[in-house]
Amino acid sequence: ALLFANPSISQDYQPSPENLKNREWYQDAKFGLFIHWGVYSVLGVHEWVMETQGIDVATYEKLPAFFNPTEFDAEAWVLMAKNAGMKYITITTKHHDGFAMFNSKLSDWDIMDRTVYKKDVIKQMAEACRKHDMKLFLYYSQLDWHHNDYYPRGDTGKKSGRPDKGNWEDYLDYMNGQLTELLTNYGEIGGIWFDGWWDKKEADWQLRKTYDLIHELQPQAMIGSNHHQTPNPGEDFQMFERDLPGQNKGGYSGEATVGKLPLETAETMAHQWGFSLQDKSYKSTKELIQYLVKAAGHNGNFLLNVGPMPNGKIQPEFIATLKEIGDWTSTYGESIYETRGGQIAPQSWGVSTQKDDKIYIHIMDWKTDNFFFPTVEGKITSVVDFQSKKKLKHNTNSYGTLVELPKNRDYDQADFVLVVQLK
Ligand code: FHN
Question: Which of 195, 268, 269 to mutate to test the pocket of ligand 1 (most atoms within 8 A of CB)?
């Protein structure tokens, strides 16, 4: 049965003070680790394998028996993220295959009932995150290829076979019940990251009921939904998959205009989200640093994904890259954390971030020593090379400022940062 519903809450959503505080924290945090982990990792064919290979429910149900991540160490993951400069972790509690990676009393399609491992992954993550001051966000797939009442069929799940009848209200009760478990059994969480709404756009999702339930249980919890559309009332952040806010290059049907909510862009370290043996299209450290910088320049966060292996380890390639990113964030963090998108709008050469009376200019593509940036509001008192801390010669006219960059700088470095001090 549905555990909570407050019909008195109107469509106008007023975020609570705790929620607004969390939003500020979130915008300061800038960088998070996304984790796609489920029983699909056993096959090493990414998280859509059930659908892409047309595996029916009964056959897919054989899979959890092989999931035994004896080398999983939640603290090691949290510390890896922390050392990379990440401030929060968003982990899949249930992906489209419907399998709960947590102890769900509402279904036996969960890690406790179907695996020999029999340990609650989300609980371990929640504890490790608490210990190391890392915020935890929970990904939850509204789309469910396993549940009998996920009906009428959505746009996906057809190849794996979907039931011909079912009770949609029962599915919503189940979903709200699982969300209640997630919001009551794991301490304070950062927020809920929804995905899969897009599978059944016409369905009556009763989103507001679900959103109000979440905010009643944990007022600070931020809700975001990967629906590629303008945010709905009750949502607290707006996310963009494989896309910088507003660019709409991710290839999704919805046109998402950038609203006023905190922003996040999600990308993955290779091409797939879940562990894939075949996918070797690893992004370089430089590319990922530049993604972080660009996201910050677009006033958003960067949520960078890994798909852990079935044994509980993260691929060494990813660990190595995250370590290098950590070297960069530990030096350049000041120009990213606690900033907002700067007053110089994103340019072909890079972006700007800003904090108080400092503008950080991030030059990512500029091959000469004379650099020009457009007029800014405020009087410029100095322009400093972030790395060497040296003041640079500059000249401001009515169009902007010309800066003499150091000769023989490394044109290939991920980001050359200038600090423009305003009076
Ligand atoms: O279908 C999912 C996909 O598996 C993955 O979870 C990504 C992450 O942003 N979101 C969906 C596609 O939009």
Answer: 195
Look at residue 252 in the predicted model and tell me its pLDDT. 63
- Asked if 17-339 and 342-422 have one fold, the answer is no
36, 199, 226: which to mutate for ligand 1, most atoms within 8 A of CB? 226
Q: Which atom of ligand 1 is nearest to the CA of 274?
A: 4
Q: How far apart are the CA of 39 and the centre of ligand 1, in A?
A: 16
Q: Residue 395 is encoded by which pair of tokens?
A: 């000249």
Q: Which CATH number does the domain 17-339 belong to among 3.40.50.720, 3.90.1150.10, 3.20.20.80, 3.90.660.20?
A: 3.20.20.80
> Per-residue pLDDT averaged across 390-415, rounded?
96
CA dihedral sign, ordered 370, 375, 377, 378: positive
Task: Identify the three-state secondary structure at position 131.
Answer: helix
- Quick one: pLDDT at residue 229? 87
Please tell me whether the interface predicted TM-score (ipTM) of this complex is above 0.95.
Answer: yes
> Does 408 or 4 have the greater pLDDT score?
408
Place of tokens 């695996």: 115
**For the segment 31-78, what is each residue's pLDDT rounded down to a tens digit?**
999 999 999 999 999 999 999 999 999 999 999 999 999 999 999 999
Domain boundaries, the chain: 17-339, 342-422
What span, in angstroms and rounded, lies between the C-alpha atoms of 132 and 33? Answer: 14
Q: Which residues line ligand 1 (CB under 6 A)?
A: 36, 47-48, 195, 226, 241, 266, 273
For residue 115, give both structure tokens.
Answer: 């695996």
Using a pLDDT cut of 70, give the percent of the chain over it. Answer: 96
Say what the pLDDT of residue 51 is.
95
CA of 154 to the centre of ligand 1 (A): 15
Q: Outline where 261-377 has alpha helix (H).
A: 285-297, 316-332
Tell me the mean pLDDT in the region 231-238: 96
Q: What are phi and psi of 224, to 5 degrees?
A: -135, 155
Instruction: State which of 156, 241, 303, 306 you would mutate to test the pocket of ligand 1, scoring each by most atoms of that ligand within 8 A of its C-beta.
Output: 241
Span 253-287, pLDDT tens digits: 566 788 899 999 999 999 999 999 999 999 999 99
- Per-residue b or e along 242-260, where b marks 16 or more CB atoms closer than 10 Å to that residue's CB: ebbbeebebebeeebebee
The residue nearest atom 5 of ligand 1, judged by CA position, is 273
Quote the CATH superfamily of domain 342-422. Golgi alpha-mannosidase II (2.60.40.1180)
